[in-house]
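Quick note —
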Amino acid sequence: MFKNNSFIKRFTDMMSEGFIFIDTTGKIQIYNNKAKEIFGINDHEGIDHRTGTIQKGDIVIIGDNCLGKDDGNLTPKALKQLGIHDHHIEIGDAIAAVGVIDIPDVEPMYRYSKSGALVLEKRFLENDINVVIDTIKKTIKIEVNHQEFLLSYNNAIGHMVVLDGETREVKFYQTKGYTARGEGIQDLLSGKHYRAKGKYADIFDVIGKNIFEIHSHSATIEEFYEVAQGKDLSYKEKFTEINGRSTICTLEPINHKSKRVGAVLKVEDISEIKKVIRERDEALFHLERIEERLKEREDISILFPEVIGEGEEISHVRHLAYKASRSNSTVLILGESGTGKSMLAKGIHHASKYRDKPFIYVNSSSIPENLLESELFGYEGGAFTGARREGKIGMFEMADGGTIFLDEIGELSISLQAKLLQVLQSKSFYRVGGNKRISVDVRIIAATNKNLEEEMVKGSFREDLYYRINVFPIWIPPLRNRKQDIYSLVENILPKICSRIGCHQKHMSGESIQKLLDYSWPGNIRELENILERAVNLTETNTILSKHLVLGTIKQHQVDRDTDIKSLKEIIWEAEKKGIEEALKLSNGNKNTAMEALGIGKTSFYEKLKKYSIN
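Predicted structure written out below.
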């Protein structure tokens, strides 16, 4: 159909989305590498095994979180081949089982559940078997003699490992893409051949195959086929599920000289993202034509001039920031300290429709916990000792119509997390001491340098709040992972430093640039700015040499801090002094308010002011 198939293949393989083209008969003409990656067609990692079938006497281990779904339509009846004759097992149940094919004398071992979560850990025919269905991590793990086979899932999946009945070696295991390869559990238990893996794997060429040989008869694939045949239908960015993978799809008919010649399906995989967050479907995976993308790049360079660098990582950050500015979804900015999370949040606000409205910055880690609630939500007059008679509006009210930026959100206490969740759900709240519900129209941007998923496991961050704020995540990579941007950053930062200090413009020598490139940058861009400012002050000429760059101060400070151990008394004094100073600052110097917030008596409070020389 195409005059230059090799050129078309090279072009489509460069695309970041899966790209599939079928002709009017449903035969696949183009199936790019990204589509193969999404549906697991190129997945040959793990141990090697040859092609074959399941035979009598083979040991079969199964982990299935929803019987009958995304497992080849496995039925309770089919489990009888493993010796499982349990009429209580129904379609939709989760099951973990191990048994021998068609050998009734060997008693199978199994567990099933209506809820989904299961663990089966047994010694079976001299093999250590461990099956774990984890509904939190959305994974199914089958471990055989300490060899692990792990599959993640979105809604449902059927996982299976088969041991040879004679050698007891692994002869088959499920991997991502088993649906495309026609290797569902039911299929293989029915005698269908499975494909080889690793060094024995042949090239799985889908070109020329019917689309229904590779993809199950889902609604999207049915529509794809119908459009190729002539149906008048197209759509962009539709959330759908193909082969058990959550995807965003764009479907377009292809005509040549007013005649239908096929259809194109563009696919982005979002199976790792929580389906319940519908807003992300609109914001993260917006597919655009080439002309629109060119226009978008121009807009991005104009709207985000402060995001410096041309590397792939930071370009992706700019792209996501632009998408976020077009949306009103909650944004979560992730990254280490010093990567520029606050700067990016301001950039998103100023590029958005809220640009003429307030941008309120809240550093959750710098405000004492007992003051933070009233700072965020305000308080009514007389709500507590030292409160203003007329009350005070909080930062959410200040941000009404605009954006509130919650920096270091991982530092919030569990009780404040619960109240914040309520605000996110209803866009309303009560002031401290108040009984009137206050509604606000505010866009929320949050940021943290913590791993919130780890914090959830520890119990210090609410899972429901995580999924509420993680609608549109943007991860800013550390500087050490994008060193190719250092030259651009220096060109941007150095003139500003010189202007601020009031000296002649200076430039870097080649050797000094190389020294920056060789450094590991634990403090990221903030550290780069400090090092450059120090170098500008040290050099007396217009050229900054490598000897003017003082690197490694953060790391050295850490070493010094680790080796210079302070007494517990010193640590307590420092913390106490800092807490009193912050309380006075946040209460605008009102000692009564600070006293009340800190929960200490008047005599004790004034003694500490004198002790720490606090004005």
